[in-house]
UniProtKB/TrEMBL annotation:
This is SDR family oxidoreductase. The keyword Oxidoreductase applies. It comes from the Bacteria. Signal peptide: none annotated. Belongs to the short-chain dehydrogenases/reductases (SDR) family. InterPro entries: NAD(P)-bd_dom_sf (IPR036291), Sc_DH/Rdtase_CS (IPR020904), SDR_fam (IPR002347). Pfam families: adh_short_C2. The keyword Oxidoreductase applies. Keywords: Oxidoreductase. GO terms for molecular function: oxidoreductase activity.
Length: 249
């Protein structure tokens, strides 16, 4: 207990799935947690579940104005920002042939530009005292996934952005670490909605060949990256895929 005691952590997409699990675990380990989501009612409910150390805000990560407002509100409420978990994202299927330009732009706007804005304003808030940025990427950024063209590209952008942020902060001596997390599949509402009835047949714990993990598996890694235990891990791509990339390569 207490692995992130006293830290102020901002988690986007915290109304459900991985974001919710991140916020609950980080708060249990001593952090003050700012939870944001476009689903204001949902994120308020998670904050109420956590208690006094949680603060919920409506937040569209594709909006620069929203990022400015959320960071200012965090600083006003808790006085600092130590950790940013860029977690919110959208997922849609589509190959290079079936993806429309409108779909492509929508996914890049949220998944790539939203994370750029988070890193930009996160660095601004942390550079005086240091901190950690954790970007949720995907195995789709590292492996060819034919049916997730736009999503794969957006997560590839997040991966490259992460390395750039890490290099910049090191060169500027900001003591801000930036790492990306690369799951294969996570059993979340977003994924189960996409999979439909097939999701009911997924065995995430008893099958050694499982490609799907649980939100808590991701949250455990996020907790480590948010803590001082990972002080020398910077600019890294951390896979959490049960060896799937090794099988596919």
């Amino acid at each position: 207990m207490g692995r992130v005691k006293g830290k102020v952590v901002l988690v986007t997409g915290a109304a459900s799935g991985v974001g919710r699990e991140n916020a609950i675990l980080l708060a249990a380990e001593g952090a003050k947690v700012v939870l944001t989501d476009v689903n204001e009612a949902g994120v308020q409910a998670v904050a109420a579940e956590i208690g006094d150390n949680a603060y919920a805000l409506a937040h569209n990560i594709a909006s620069e104005g929203d990022w400015q407002r959320v960071v200012v509100a965090t600083l006003e409420r808790f006085g600092r920002l130590d950790v940013l978990v860029n977690n919110a994202a959208i997922l849609a299927m589509g190959t290079i042939e079936s993806t429309t330009l409108e779909d492509w732009q929508k996914i890049q706007r949220v998944n790539a530009e939203g994370y750029f804005l988070g890193c930009k304003y996160g660095v601004q808030a942390m550079k005086q005292h240091g901190g950690a940025i954790i970007n949720m990427a995907s195995l789709a950024a590292l492996a060819g996934m034919a049916h997730f063209c736009a999503y794969s590209a957006s997560k590839g952008a997040v991966t490259a952005l992460t390395r750039s942020v890490a290099a910049h902060c090191k060169q500027q001596r900001y003591n801000i670490r930036c790492n990306s997390v690369h799951p294969d599949g996570i059993l979340t509402p977003m994924v189960t909605n996409l999979m439909g009835a097939a999701s009911a047949e997924v065995n995430v714990e008893g099958d050694p060949m499982a490609r799907m993990c649980l939100p808590r598996d991701i949250a455990n890694l996020v907790l480590f990256l948010a803590s001082d235990e990972s002080r020398f891990i910077n600019g890294s791509e951390l896979r959490i895929d049960n060896g799937q990339l090794s099988i596919d390569s």
